[in-house]
Amino acid sequence: MAGILSLVRRIYLSFYNWIVFFGWFQVFYLAVKTLKESGHEYVYDAVEKPLLLAQTAAILEILHGLVGLVRSPVSATLPQISSRLYVMWGILWSFPELRSHILVSSLVISWSVTEIIRYSFFGTKEAFGSAPSWLLWLRYSTFLLLYPSGITSEVGLIYSALPYIKESGKYSLRMPNKWNFSFDYYYAGLVALGIYVPGNPHMYGYMLGQRKKALSKSKKE
Fold first, then answer.
1. Which residue has the higher pLDDT, 53 or 212?
2. Which residues contact 117 (CB under 8 A, 6 or more apart)?
3. Has 147 been annotated as catalytic?
4. How far apart are the first and last CA of the chain?
5. Which is nearest to 29 in space by CA: 86, 109, 87, 96?
6. Cβ 61 vs Cβ 70: under 8 Å
């Protein structure tokens, strides 16, 4: 019975990783094609549907960690996925004024290259039991450049959105109301920026530790 469950787990995770891989590959292809043919102003419109689907699918990874399908700690997965969902849905999807910003292109390229490598690595590992050493190296090395570029893009877009958030009042709840509760989405954006300051150096350090562990283990094997 345990063997059957293990097989089902591997098949499911293999399919999941490769399906999301193709989603991110489509995002990357459309972004590069649009940058070349039309310019950065049109990148978001070109990638919106596959981007929303591929990144939202990552919610399943939180569930995977919670139920024990994968060993990744939820404490590391949750903040990273939550911040991306916030930028994608709470900023870019909610405030169209930002969609032509040049940082959208750097964001999309950073995210898509990272995820193409990550999902192909885990998809190969689940399907065949291991991944080639070059893919392992890419998985644990490309973040050295792509993580800072992605985070810089995220922070820049949140900051750029603040005037539009404040002017529109979108997602804010003013007093008085029947719930006797107020919420200001503008200040939520400021809090998000404040969380990035201590949170991302911590995450980067965690990833450096994972890189050292994974590559040293690979050398021993």
1. 53
2. 135, 138, 139, 142
3. yes
4. 30
5. 109
6. yes
From the candidates 154, 187, 204, 221, which is the catalytic residue? 154
| pTM confidence score | 0.93
Q: Which residues pair with 183 in a beta bridge?
A: 173
> What is the b/e burial string over 61-72, where b = at least 16 CB atoms within 10 angstroms of the residue's CB?
bbebbeeeebee
Annotated active-site residue in 16, 147, 185, 186: 147
- Phi and psi at 216, nearest 5°, equal -70, -35
Q: Which residue has the tokens 């919670």?
A: 66
Given a cut of 90, whether residue 87 has pLDDT beyond it is: yes
* CA–CA gap between residue 71 and residue 78 (Å, rounded): 13
167 catalytic per annotation: no
